[in-house]
């Protein structure tokens, strides 16, 4: 039976940690490695205990000054030979759940459904919304948040990649690459020749293999699997997340704009909640360990206390109101929302120039959206052509 491993980076994930771990153990991951940095809520102590119980492996990510936590953890992981002693590897955040939608919904079912010889599965995100919930709760994620973006929500087409480890791998949060590919054409050619498929089991084209981390209209696929990304959760949980900071040190990443874009609740998607009883039973079994139970409760208490402090700060109610208004933004109005974070440096510089000229953000947003749409259309056509040249019919009848 194939061995499968998850690699994750965490900070202050205590109340949700056991659910995430239990779910992925239940669907078939037999090894989980977690790097933590700067935990305030005892997540690191929880993971130490889980490590002692043989349920995961935990390592500290001591981030040097000027370094970013996530890239530094990935660089540490690349040197961890034991991590790569597996048949399949997935890099995943603690708010991401691999949702298999075929067979018995386990990892083995997904791999059985992929073509023979598959070496990587680029699985698209499915952005999960807040379900209109405002208050934070330490209760499990899966039964709370059961609404999501539709499959054609292009802003949510990022991928996470389940792949077979190989020599000279360069780890990335969305997909792996190859070290030294620019200097070593033979090494790059070997990587480019790998057989990757999308979440529907259809082949991926060369342009994606080269540097893609998002699906296109020709490659997006949800038939076999998706990554349920609980990026916002409740409004108070979202503010707690912003208080924690982020793994790439991006200032003000978790603002109302991000919430407006990713708090998507257009379709009911309760599939993962069917695992809730099994997850709860496994977590309850783990919590019969008195030490783990004490650490878990302490983490929940820390989050409740920290939220109490945030609620008492000036402007908290206003920020909650701002998120509530952001949540009302329909997909059809998102082109009027200026979302700068995903833009390349050139795009961000263009936004700065437009602002300096006094253009309103809504006007800038529409102009940027038009430019992005044109680039996406070019990529759609390019990847569709590449797939047809491979003898593959592009996804979605493109």
Automatic annotation (TrEMBL):
Query: GO cellular component annotations, sorted alphabetically?
Result: cytoplasm; membrane
What is this entry's stated membrane topology? Answer: Single-pass membrane protein
Pfam families of this UniProt entry? Answer: Glyco_tranf_2_4
Q: Where in the cell is it found?
A: Membrane
Alphabetically, the GO molecular function entries are: glycosyltransferase activity
Alphabetical UniProt keywords: Membrane, Transferase, Transmembrane, Transmembrane helix
Report TM segments. Answer: none
Transport: is it a keyword of this entry? no
User: What is the protein named?
Assistant: Glycosyl transferase family 2
């Amino acid at each position: 039976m194939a061995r499968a491993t998850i690699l994750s980076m965490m900070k202050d994930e205590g109340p949700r940690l056991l659910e995430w771990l239990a779910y992925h153990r239940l669907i078939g991951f037999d090894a989980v490695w977690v790097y933590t940095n700067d935990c305030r809520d005892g997540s690191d102590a929880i993971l130490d205990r889980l490590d002692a119980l043989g349920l995961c492996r935990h390592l500290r990510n001591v981030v040097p000054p000027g370094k970013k936590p996530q890239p530094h953890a990935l660089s540490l992981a690349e040197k961890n030979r034991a991590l790569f002693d597996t048949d399949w590897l997935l890099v995943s955040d603690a708010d991401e759940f691999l949702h298999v939608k075929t067979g018995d919904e386990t990892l083995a079912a997904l791999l059985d459904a992929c073509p023979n010889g598959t070496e990587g599965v680029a699985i698209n995100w499915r952005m999960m919304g807040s379900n209109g919930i405002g208050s934070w709760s330490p209760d499990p994620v899966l039964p709370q948040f059961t609404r999501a973006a539709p499959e054609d929500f292009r802003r949510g087409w990022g991928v996470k990649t389940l792949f077979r480890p190989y020599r000279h791998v360069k780890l990335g949060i969305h997909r792996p690459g190859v070290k030294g590919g620019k200097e070593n054409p033979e090494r790059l050619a070997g990587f480019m020749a790998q057989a990757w498929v999308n979440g529907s089991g259809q082949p991926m084209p060369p342009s994606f293999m080269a540097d893609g981390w998002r699906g296109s209209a020709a490659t997006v696929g949800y038939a076999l699997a998706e990554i349920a990304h609980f990026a916002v959760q409740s409004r108070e949980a979202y503010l707690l997340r912003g208080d924690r900071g982020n793994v790439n040190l991006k200032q003000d990443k978790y603002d109302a704009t991000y919430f407006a874009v990713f708090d998507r609740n257009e379709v009911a998607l309760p599939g993962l909640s069917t695992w809730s009883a099994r997850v709860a039973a496994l977590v309850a079994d783990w919590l019969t360990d008195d030490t783990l139970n004490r650490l878990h409760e302490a983490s929940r208490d820390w989050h409740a206390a920290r939220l109490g402090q945030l609620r008492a700060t000036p402007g908290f109610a206003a920020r909650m109101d701002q998120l509530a208004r952001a949540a009302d933004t329909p997909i059809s109005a998102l082109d009027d929302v200026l979302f700068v974070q995903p833009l390349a440096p050139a795009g961000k510089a263009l936004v700065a120039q437009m602002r300096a000229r006094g253009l309103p953000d809504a006007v800038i947003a529409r102009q940027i959206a038009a430019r992005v749409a044109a680039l996406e259309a070019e990529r759609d056509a390019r990847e569709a052509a590449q797939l047809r040249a491979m003898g593959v019919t592009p996804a979605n009848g493109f």
